[in-house]
Design brief:
Elements lengths: L1 H20 L2 E5 L3 E3 L4 E7 L4 E4 L6 E16 L2 E14 L3 E5 L3 E4 L2 E4 L3 E6 L15 H4 E7 L10 E9 L4 E9 L6 E6 L6 E6 L2 E15 L3 E5 L3 E8 L13 E8 L3 E5 L16 E9 L3 E2 L5 E11 L15 E3 L3 E9 L2 E14 L3 E5 L2 E7 L4 E7 L2 E5 L52 H29 L1 H22 L4 H20 L8 H10 L4 H16 L7 H21 L2
Helix pairs in contact: 4-5, 5-7, 5-8, 6-7, 7-8
Length: 591
């Protein structure tokens, strides 16, 4: 028993001795350094360890490391082992900084270093060896944000071009964006740069090479002082040094630097209140305004397209187009909006338009009132208004305005088919002398022709009454007339979609209008009620089967998706055939 106790004590003493010999410590190359100096930190252990965990290095930026060195020697039968993890740090702030504990696992036991305190002072001027041809990354890299205008008007475009200047003696191997600027209170558009190109220029009067990294067009959305956040980059570079190979070639030094373009303040001027028209919708730039009808003379059941368009340069995507005012006798559908806009360093330019489908309900002449468009011209510093002239729509035939049960339009239609007689023509010359010609004596009374002529009007009266009754019922059926007109419009849009298969956008716009007008014709659903969540339910309630309703919703979703995704010509043909089949099936199924 005593032997066992003695053996246990010896083992404990040996284990304590082994544990006491393990060392793990942190050593800093300096206790005090300047902001522009580097600090070397070594984490050294005298036994092989695993799961090394470095500290977070708060207040420092790691510019190199970790590098690992291992050495082992045998002297007089004794083994010496040393393992070191080395980091090179650059301070990011002044003051007393602490390098916290690192940890490692050795022989199943976790060891930690003691914290190391370092004092960081202001940057100091470092003497340069005149024979040293090495280049510092601090002086060789500069990121600049060129802003075209610092005092724009509200919604007037400005451009921001980010340029990276670098010395002729260095090479850039890689760069990463650390912090992308957020353009709060700006509408922004990035201009793609297909390939980075090195150009020559000057920075602070000295020759540099530079690369244009980003181009941004900004439209300020509110007045006052607005901040543009800085762009920050982390750049890997190769610097020349005094080291040479045995053949005399210079050995470059790998280095790293973070650069920032710096925050900029833009003073946005508000648009002047003096002289601002009531109908101003926020357009800023130089524009042309047009209102163009596809036709002005049409028959009952035909339709026309009224296109309201604005072209020029300015904030084309940031204002609404004026809406035409038409009489109630002209039924106007929701517009189809089109944009053909390109963005360059000068801002947006192109054309935007709203196309309205209009169907007349009655015969007559109807005016579309003049439409005005107002914009602010920043170069002239004043508002300008363009007014499109009145457009007269002439409907040649169709139900009369005075038809019982029909709605009374706001516009005054043309007069009925009777031509007015001028007052000077109400009395005509009457001949006083007559030339009588004797007629042959025939017994017309009692003849078959006599009774036929007498009885024919009597027989036609019921037929005329029936025709007149049907005509009145048809004219009074405003909802039915709308349904028939919508069906004709569906056929028209389907044929238009068939003609536009070469143009994806025109095809899917025409197809979507056809599907919506089919719902108007069959279900009486207004455009504002056409939401996918209730269309399927209404179709099924009205007698459509589940598969047909699903196919219809799938077509609507295809029209929406095709605006943003590429579509092949085969898919366009397939969607057209599906639309014709689904409309035909629903025509039979719906009650």
């Amino acid at each position: 028993m005593k032997g066992l106790l003695r053996f246990t004590v010896i083992l404990l003493l040996l284990a304590q001795s082994v544990m006491a010999q393990v060392q793990f410590e942190a050593r800093a190359s300096k206790q005090s350094l300047a902001m522009n100096e580097r600090l070397r930190v070594d984490f050294t252990m005298n036994a092989d360890g695993d799961n090394f965990v470095p500290p977070s290095f708060e207040g420092f930026r790691v510019v190199a490391g970790p590098s690992q060195q291992v050495s082992q020697s045998w002297v007089n039968g004794k083994t010496a082992f040393n393992k070191t993890y080395t980091y090179f740090l650059l301070p990011t702030q002044r003051g007393q900084l602490t390098i916290r504990q690192a940890s490692v696992e050795i022989n199943g036991q976790v060891y930690k270093t003691s914290p190391v305190k370092v004092t960081v002072t202001a940057a100091v001027e470092q003497p340069r060896d005149p024979n040293d041809i090495s280049v510092s990354a601090e002086d060789a890299l500069h990121l600049v944000a060129d802003i075209s205008k610092t005092d724009p008007y509200l919604n007037e475009p400005i451009t921001v071009v980010y340029k990276l200047y670098f010395n002729y003696n260095i090479g850039i191997t890689n760069f990463r964006e650390l912090d992308k600027p957020k353009y709060n209170d700006f509408w922004s558009q990035n201009i793609d740069i297909k390939q980075l190109q090195v150009e020559e220029g000057r920075y602070n009067g000295e020759k540099y090479r530079y690369i244009v990294l980003k181009k941004i067009v900004l439209y300020p959305q509110k007045s006052g002082k607005l901040e543009i956040e800085p762009l920050s980059l982390d750049i890997d570079v190769e610097l020349p040094s005094n080291r040479r190979t045995i053949f005399g070639q210079m050995i470059p030094i790998q280095d790293n630097k973070r650069v920032s373009a710096g925050a900029r303040t833009i003073n946005v001027k508000p648009l002047p209140e003096a002289g601002k028209p009531v109908d101003f919708s926020g357009a800023v730039g130089k524009f042309d305004f047009k209102v163009t009808p596809s036709r002005t003379v049409l028959k009952n059941g035909e339709s026309l397209d009224l296109v309201v368009s604005v072209s020029g340069s300015g904030n084309l995507k940031l204002f609404s187009l004026p809406k035409p005012v038409v009489p109630a006798a002209l039924e106007m559908y929701d517009p189809v909006h089109k944009e053909n806009v390109s963005t360059t360093l000068n801002g947006m330019s192109g054309r935007v338009s709203d196309s309205y489908a209009i169907i007349p309900q009655f015969r007559g002449k109807y005016p579309v009132k003049p439409i005005s468009f107002t914009y602010f011209d920043p170069s002239a510093r004043k508002y300008r208004t363009i007014t499109a002239p009145e457009i007269m729509i002439n409907v040649l035939d169709g139900p009369d305005v005075a038809t019982p049960g029909a709605a009374t339009p706001d516009a005054v239609p043309a007069a009925s088919g009777k031509n007015p007689i001028a007052s000077r023509a109400q009395f005509k010359f009457i001949k006083l002398n007559t030339s009588l010609v004797p007629q042959k004596s025939e017994d017309f009374l009692g003849s078959g022709l006599f009774y036929a002529l007498v009885g024919l009007p009597l027989l036609c009266i019921p037929l005329l009454m029936l025709v007149r009754k049907k005509q009145l019922a048809s004219d009074a059926d405003v909802a039915g007339n709308k349904a028939r007109q919508s069906q004709r419009l569906v056929r028209r849009y389907l044929s238009e979609a068939g003609r536009s298969m070469g143009d994806k956008e025109s095809f899917y716009n025409a197809l979507e209008r056809a599907l919506h007008n089919f719902l108007r014709a069959k279900l009486g659903i207004e455009t504002s009620e056409m939401r996918k969540e209730n269309i399927r339910e209404i179709l099924i309630q009205r007698g459509a089967n589940t598969d047909s309703a699903h196919q219809f919703i799938s077509l609507v979703e295809s029209c929406e998706l095709a605006r943003y995704a590429p579509v092949s010509s085969g898919s366009i043909k397939q969607d057209y055939d599906r639309a014709a089949q689904v409309v035909q099936e629903l025509e039979k199924q719906l009650k």
